[in-house]
Amino acid sequence: MSATSQDGFLKSIPGLILCMILGWLALQWNYTVSGWDKDFKECQKILKTSAEGVGRTAPGEEAVPAKPLPREPLSEEPLSPFDAYKAKHAEKYKEQLALYGQGELKKKPKKPHILKQDAYESLIATNEIPFKFKFGVKMIQFQLTYVAVLLLGGMLIRNTVGIPDIFKPGTLLARPIIKPGIVLLGGYYVWSNLFKVGLVALLLVIIFIFGTVVLVSVIGRKLKQDEGVIGVMAAGTGVCGVSAAVAVAPIVKAKPRDFFYAVGTLLLFGTVALFTFPYIGKALGMSEPVFGAWVGTSILNTAQLVAAASWYGHDSLLTANIINIVRVGFIPLVVLYCIWFYLVKGASAEGREEKMNTWQVIMDKFPLFILGFFAMVTLNELGVFTKDHQYIFGKQFLKIFFAIGFAGVGLNIAFDDLKKAGGKAFVIGVFAASFKAILSAVIVMLLGTAVFQVQ
Q1: Which sequence spans correspond to the domains of the chain?
Q2: What counts of helices (H) and strands (E) characterise the chain?
């Protein structure tokens, strides 16, 4: 490591530590709220079974008409003591394990969720579900998981009290930490499944990437916009937001002002999409795989795409990740297209000769983390990873990487940056991105869950 890069890394340490702390706090929130949600459902089960058909319901549930039993008159039985309640669950779990061992159950049974003694005794004393359990349910219903807390909380901090300069380099460095999480996701796939969803993803990506790139390029020229800003906007709205814009900017000779216009537009659209698409998906009744396919084709930046998909659910993330891998792999091809459209073609029209080194462009622009993802898929195909391995790196380490990255994303959503969008280029970019989002929503919903489901 050179002295310059070492000095830069040292300056990033305070910001990285800040993102780690925020990520850890958000994961604790997620763990607590999820636990309360499970406790609420367990309370509902206890109250329902104790009613013995009399028609008593748990708070928040619709009353169910009592069903007459064939023998004795209906009567409420008192709830069992905690030790009996716990022993009953343990015995049932033991029976299920035995059935699983005999091959009568296909899936290994999960350990039962048991209330803590104080919560159980409070429930049987009052017949009322504790408020904190109800609160946990509401947080899950409103999707206020660790993803939302980090994004909304980080954005609030950045745009109110602000971030001291000492933390800024580290928060920028935290965002790419999402990519190791994407690599770990490879351990969830096998090649047959990857090809099944990947072939459809490839078709969608080709249609939407090159369709958007061509659309923005043609409209920009028709409106006589500067080719620098339109080239950057075409790459950004077509492939993966700011990363593609940065790759194309020097090729199309984008001016600093035009580059910031384009990046501002991309960030603004991506931010709005990040905070609205999960709720739009719920309103439209999208399943998790369908939503993953939608955000995979529609949300521009990888970090925002991964955040929105994680926000919606794990199955959504698995599908969105495949489409994102395919999409990001097209960056070199989009760069080649921009070289041809803005340099080679223009030079030819002027009677000049402009050459491009295709292989060099591909080598320079190909995202290397994709190779790590494919390596993980191959190891999983070979049976290297067990279910326990998948849980450890897929549920634990993945969330850690994502939490640190999402903290960096939230802390870098600055309203001042979003205000940099402007001019006709803004209108063109938002139109193209919105058109792509609407069209892709229609297509993925028509294709349905089965097409995008990752087993």
Answers
A1: 3-61+77-140, 172-452
A2: 24, 0
